[in-house]
Amino acid sequence: MLDNLTQRLSRVVKTMRGEARLTETNTQDMLREVRMALLEADVSLPVVRDFVARVKEKALGQDVVGSLNPGQALVGVVHKELTSLMGGDLGPEASELSLASQPPAVILMAGLQGAGKTTTTGKLAKWLLDGQHVHNGRKTGKKKVLVVSADVYRPAAIEQLKTVATQVQADFLPSDTSSKPEDIARGALDHARRHHYDVLIVDTAGRLGVDEAMMREIRALYDLLHPVETLFVVDAMQGQDAVNVAKAFADALPLTGVVLTKLDGDARGGAALSVRHVTGKPLKFVGVSEKLDGLEPFHPERMAQRVLG
Ligand code: GDP
């Protein structure tokens, strides 16, 4: 995950730590290296520019000048800014799933077809069923979870969700492809209420590209379900394209978080940083395997530490 970025940045960090003196030249060199590393990792240009400008500003300011080891201090600035870029600026609880509501807490899954929505629905269900959910740093116990698919266009998608649900032993509510997505959602909400589910996860239809009809449909589901979490699922392998898709979803829906999938692949991972920046929403989870236990909560601080080596 983000291996390339890690390799490059840790090299910069090593060099900088060894610098007893900070000069215009070595600061510029370091900033250039950071910029290159981020661009190569697929972080989008505006995000990179913004990032480098912030580091530069801090580097020239009190944070670094006059410190005992300026190289080390500069690394500290990069670390802080990277944590912030990854969502650390939103506070430690931002990457937690927020389920505080009158049960059932509804989680709405949004994203393009193939992004990993159905797989992530299964992974999340498992995570909740296993009692992995954390609130204010504490596990909140095992949840009773119901999953449903509002994808009436692809019967195979409904079947896939059923398979995934069976594997993780989550309850699955069958959907009738002749129903409207809103009716399915309404029915699922009613079922979840009557049977005292803690969480209802609604998987939705994805299209190959962003289109208006799709956005209208998911918006209608949002209005009806009042989800506590609306998660935008995005494939890390999408690279730069992910930014545009993220923007379209963020404009259409009040997203609460992002799930970045397929970080186990050879994705350069920089999309993670851009998507967070573009949507203004925290990355809550990353998908790190096709298997249903391949979901990890995202921690900005830890990730920044890892990337800087
Ligand atoms: P959906 O169309 O958005 O519901 O996407 P799917 O859940 O069907 O996922 C599309 C493909 O990506 C499937 O083959 C999944 O097994 C795969 N996939 C999803 N998440 C991950 C992940 O985190 N890592 C890997 N390697 N594959 C994933």
UniProtKB/TrEMBL annotation:
Biological process, per Gene Ontology: SRP-dependent cotranslational protein targeting to membrane
Reaction it catalyzes: GTP + H2O = GDP + phosphate + H(+)
MF terms (GO), sorted A to Z: 7S RNA binding; GTP binding; GTPase activity
Assigned GO CC terms: signal recognition particle
N-terminal signal peptide: none
The SRP54-type proteins GTP-binding domain, residue ranges: 282-295
Organism phylogeny: Bacteria, Pseudomonadati, Pseudomonadota, Betaproteobacteria, Burkholderiales
Keywords from the UniProt entry: Cytoplasm, GTP-binding, Hydrolase, Nucleotide-binding, Ribonucleoprotein, RNA-binding, Signal recognition particle
Function: Involved in targeting and insertion of nascent membrane proteins into the cytoplasmic membrane. Binds to the hydrophobic signal sequence of the ribosome-nascent chain (RNC) as it emerges from the ribosomes. The SRP-RNC complex is then targeted to the cytoplasmic membrane where it interacts with the SRP receptor FtsY. Interaction with FtsY leads to the transfer of the RNC complex to the Sec translocase for insertion into the membrane, the hydrolysis of GTP by both Ffh and FtsY, and the dissociation of the SRP-FtsY complex into the individual components.
E.C. number: 3.6.5.4
Subunit structure, interactors included: Part of the signal recognition particle protein translocation system, which is composed of SRP and FtsY. SRP is a ribonucleoprotein composed of Ffh and a 4.5S RNA molecule.
Family: Belongs to the GTP-binding SRP family. SRP54 subfamily.
Species: Allopusillimonas soli
Name under which the protein is recorded: Signal recognition particle protein
Subcellular location: Cytoplasm
